[in-house]
Amino acid sequence: MNTEMESYEKEISDYKMELFDNLVGKAEKVLEIGIGTEAGLKSEDFTFIQALGESIPLEDASVDAVVGTLVLCSVTDVTRTLNEIKRILRPGGIYIFIEHVAAEDGTFLRLVQNVLDPLQQVVADGCHLTRHTGESILEARFNGGADVKKASLSRFAYISSHVYGVAYN
């Protein structure tokens, strides 16, 4: 997966830098959900917890920030996962996200996503191509609201619709 994701990571790096600026000097305790590969980070500098997004084993209001990249496409229950994120965030905490989402209804891209979605779930750890994740984040009603922006990535034609942003607890 590292090799396949290298070009993807290059393309989203500007979005990540924009989002991660929200953490600098503001977040002491950060939880990254769905961490995936670690890109050379020293594991001794981190605490790892194996859990489901729908049931995060942390205390209420215990983290300053939650970071998720391409996670909500693969959880079983998006609403429960977002509720868990809200629960563990301290007041004033932030949820930073980058997610691929369903293309607009009626577009050729959406047709392709609909056709590929069952196969994608099998070969990519339950990843759904046709979720409306941006809408789900807005519907989760984070206390301070959410800033959800749209982006298209040229190198990933069948999953090019993305949302990224920050939700405020």
UniProtKB/TrEMBL annotation:
Look up the signal peptide feature and give its range.
Answer: none
Q: Which domain of life is it from?
A: Eukaryota
The residue ranges of the Methyltransferase type domain are 44-97
By its UniProt entry, which InterPro entries does this protein fall under?
Answer: Methyltransf_11 (IPR013216), Thiol_S-MT (IPR052356)
The yes or no answer to whether the keyword Chloroplast is present is no
Question: What Gene Ontology terms for biological process does this UniProt record contain?
Answer: methylation
State a single Gene Ontology molecular function. S-adenosylmethionine-dependent methyltransferase activity
Keywords, comma-separated and alphabetical = Methyltransferase, Transferase
Q: What is this protein called?
A: S-adenosyl-L-methionine-dependent methyltransferase
